[in-house]
């Protein structure tokens, strides 16, 4: 297909990006209440995310990479993955937190500027999932203050997106 | 037959199914180690341990050849002085079981980073060894001597959305003098969790060794269990397992192609490969109720049957890819800027690739054939026929092309399988028996081996050899004298995973 052919094709067909559904109001309200209680400064309608794989199986990472593609188009919601924790507002952690990753996770969190959020994605990150009770795991993201959990093994990109959009809504709501 | 293979075959055969395990004395094991120096020696696939025994798995002319030795006084003779591929395994065995490889090339810790409360958590002398808690971090790296060298530490938190791994780069200006990989950050204690559970429960851990190859790991594990217990899965399960495996293969190749395109700076190919990857994920979700088809394969058969509209969902995703793939391949071949970005980077010598027992795209991109699906006793491929593409060049471009070459073949297999799905049950019950089994499956990244010992219906010992045990060391070799800036692209072409290797 030539470049003109492709342009025509793009004009004729619906975009590859899927339309969005409204974010969960319930989660947003709960998060907003938590924000007010902590008197945390609002970050506005844009969040930069640093992902930390705390020893997961790559299943959650795979779905997060899918989220980054054109089908979900994260950036239209003001969300983007960044490579430096210094640029990040959200630490998004996956995996059962292996003992070998505990220090790296703590250091990444410490390197982020305030205010910051911690999101635990996937069953492993919540309580260790199937790896609960292993000598090598701490049973989820237990060493950091987790603000939001997103369940699933692994959660679908829509589920992750729902959680993150609730976080944006909470951030954007005017402080009472 | 090579000298090493002859030494192994001379050992008494123990009951490991379907391939026997040859028990070697200490002297014969030492002779085997020395024979591994030969150019025609069989490549090592894996080395693992139990409380009182160490196992080695080789690939002799395409078929598996197992050897084992009893551990005496907590030691066994090392293979690593003559077989560099054994080094990481020996370090893993020491950290998990406490067995010392006598004369081993590298005594540094591997999985044990000094954060566990016990040393040798799976070993028989666990209580006698002091834990390494508080061991010095950062770890020791190999010494590099020379002028104007600088070191760069990358990871375990690096890149965008990846698994943890630490890459230690020693560079002279922009040129890499040495790349050293340190893994173990994703060590979850999987082998320990599998012990003492029924095979169907332990399957949940096998399926989570590497999420991107969850079907292949589940399949190799199921093959091992079925061999150990003498169970044959029903024909419908065999066919549907192959459907899952081929769908996973296409998806994983698209995942790797997306990553390579992203690193090479081709936004268009990244977007299109990513779009098709999503279509495959959705097809998996509609057909088997889980986008990655995790826990779909169970020992004895399947956990879930295909949904009523599952075959159509898969055919729909395949059709869209079939229509667009030739054009994407043409863009890949015709774009001069993309071609010069991915050509002639990360080259590997075919001899080294063969010696390290590499498989999958890393192997097939340097003109070497090989695929576990071609082995006898790997249903249902014998009846379907299988064409395994190879490429020459052994660079990033060849590794990308050989992945894309796989896609039409997997598409053909999927269509043939879906057109003739046998009727009947999807699982056979497992007896509460004992036995030892070795299982194999071909993942998108290469050959996966699972070994299990079952006692009284419970898993007494297990090991999983992810193909990336061979591929991480080859990444180190591929980057020698390369540019620091090429590392992410080269690593993407290998498509490496930490979790499968970290156990």
Compact overview of the structure:
Chain A is an alpha/beta fold. Chain A has helices at residues 3-12, 25-38, 59-67, 102-111, 123-127, 157-172; strands at residues 47-53, 79-81, 90-94, 117-121, 148-150.
Total number of helical segments of chain B? 17
Mean pLDDT of chain B: 91
Task: Label the overall shape of chain A.
Answer: globular
Q: What is the end-to-end distance of chain B? A: 33 Å
Strand order of the largest sheet of chain A: 2-1-3-4-5
Largest interface: A-B, 48 and 53 residues
Task: Write structural notes for this entry.
The complex is a heterodimer of chains A (about 180) and B (about 500). Helices cover about 35% and strands about 15% of the residues of chain A. In chain A, helix 3 links the parallel strand 1 (about 45-55) and strand 2 (about 80). The longest helix of chain A has 16 residues, at about 155-170. In chain A, helix 2 packs across helix 6 (about 155-170) and helix 3 packs across helix 6. Chain A has about 180 residues and is α/β, with parallel strands linked by helices. The mean pLDDT of chain A is about 85. Chain A is globular, with a radius of gyration of 18 Å. With about 500 residues, chain B is α+β, with helices and mostly antiparallel strands. Chain B has two domains: about 5-125, Beta Polymerase, domain 2, CATH 3.30.460.80; about 190-490, Cytochrome-c3 Hydrogenase, chain B, CATH 1.10.645. Chain B is about 40% helix and about 15% strand. The radius of gyration of chain B is 22 Å and the shape is globular. The two termini of chain B are about 35 Å apart. The model of chain B has no long low-confidence stretch (mean pLDDT about 90). The chains are: A alpha/beta (about 180), B alpha+beta (about 500). At the A-B interface, strand 1, helix 3 and helix 4 of A face helix 4, helix 7 and helix 8 of B.
């Amino acid at each position: 297909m030539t470049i003109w052919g492709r342009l025509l094709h793009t004009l004729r067909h619906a975009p590859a990006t899927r339309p969005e559904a409204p974010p969960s109001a319930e989660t947003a309200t709960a998060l907003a209440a938590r924000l007010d209680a902590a008197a945390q400064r609002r970050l506005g309608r844009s969040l930069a995310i640093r992902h930390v794989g705390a020893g997961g199986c790559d299943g959650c990472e795979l779905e997060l990479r899918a989220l980054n593609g054109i089908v979900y188009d994260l950036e239209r919601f003001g969300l983007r993955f960044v490579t430096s924790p210094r640029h990040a507002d959200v630490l998004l952690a996956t995996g059962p937190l292996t003992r070998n990753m505990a220090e790296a996770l703590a250091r990444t969190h410490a390197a982020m500027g305030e205010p910051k959020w911690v999101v635990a994605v996937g069953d492993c990150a919540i309580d260790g999932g199937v790896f609960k009770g292993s000598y090598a795991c701490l049973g989820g993201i237990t060493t950091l203050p987790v603000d939001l959990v997103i369940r699933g093994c692994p959660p679908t990109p829509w589920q992750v997106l729902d959680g993150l959009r609730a976080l944006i809504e909470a951030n954007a709501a005017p402080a009472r | 037959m090579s000298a090493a293979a002859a030494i192994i075959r001379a050992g008494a055969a123990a009951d490991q199914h379907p391939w026997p395990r040859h028990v070697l004395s200490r002297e014969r094991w030492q002779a085997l180690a020395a024979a591994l120096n030969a150019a025609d020696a069989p490549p090592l696939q894996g080395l693992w341990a139990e409380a009182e025994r160490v196992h080695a798995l080789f690939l002799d002319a395409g078929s598996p050849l197992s050897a084992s030795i009893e551990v005496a006084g907590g030691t066994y003779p090392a293979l690593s002085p003559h077989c560099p591929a054994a080094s990481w395994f020996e370090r893993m065995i020491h950290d998990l079981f406490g067995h010392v490889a006598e004369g081993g090339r590298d005594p540094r810790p591997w999985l044990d980073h000094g954060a566990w409360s016990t040393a040798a958590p799976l070993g028989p002398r666990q209580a006698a060894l002091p834990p390494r808690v508080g061991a010095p971090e950062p770890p020791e790296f190999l010494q590099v001597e020379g002028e104007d060298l600088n070191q760069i530490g990358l990871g375990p938190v690096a890149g965008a959305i990846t698994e943890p791994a630490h890459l230690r780069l020693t560079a002279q200006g922009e040129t890499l003098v040495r790349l050293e990989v340190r893994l173990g950050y994703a060590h979850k204690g999987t082998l320990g969790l599998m012990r003492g559970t029924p095979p169907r429960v332990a399957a949940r851990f096998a399926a989570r060794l590497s999420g991107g190859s969850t079907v292949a790991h589940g399949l190799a594990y199921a093959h091992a269990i079925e061999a150990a217990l003498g169970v044959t899965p029903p024909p419908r399960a065999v066919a549907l397992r192959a459907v899952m495996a081929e769908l996973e293969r296409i998806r994983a190749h698209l995942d790797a192609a997306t990553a390579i395109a992203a690193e090479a700076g081709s936004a268009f190919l990244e977007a299109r490969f990513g779009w098709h990857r999503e279509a495959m994920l959705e097809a998996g979700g509609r057909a088997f109720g889980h986008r990655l088809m995790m826990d779909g394969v169970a020992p004895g058969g399947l956990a879930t049957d295909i949904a009523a509209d599952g075959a159509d969902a898969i055919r729909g995703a395949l059709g869209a890819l079939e229509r667009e793939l030739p054009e994407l391949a043409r863009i890949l071949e015709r774009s001069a800027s993309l071609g010069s970005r991915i050509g002639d980077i990360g080259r590997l010598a075919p001899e080294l690739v063969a010696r390290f027992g590499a498989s999958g795209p890393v192997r097939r991109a340097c003109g070497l054939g090989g695929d576990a699906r071609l082995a006898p006793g790997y249903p249902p491929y014998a009846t379907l026929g299988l064409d395994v593409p190879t490429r020459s060049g052994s660079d990033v471009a060849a590794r990308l092309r050989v992945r894309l070459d796989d896609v039409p073949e997997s598409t053909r297999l999927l269509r043939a399988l879906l057109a003739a799905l046998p009727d009947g049950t999807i699982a056979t019950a497992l007896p509460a028996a004992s036995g030892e089994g070795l299982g194999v499956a071909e993942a998108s990244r290469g050959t996966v081996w699972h070994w299990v010992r079952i006692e009284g219906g419970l898993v007494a010992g297990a090991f999983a050899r992810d193909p990336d045990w061979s591929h991480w060391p080859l990444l180190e070799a591929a980057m020698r004298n390369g540019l620091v800036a090429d590392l992410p692209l080269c690593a993407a072409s290998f498509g490496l995973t930490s979790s499968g290797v970290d156990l």
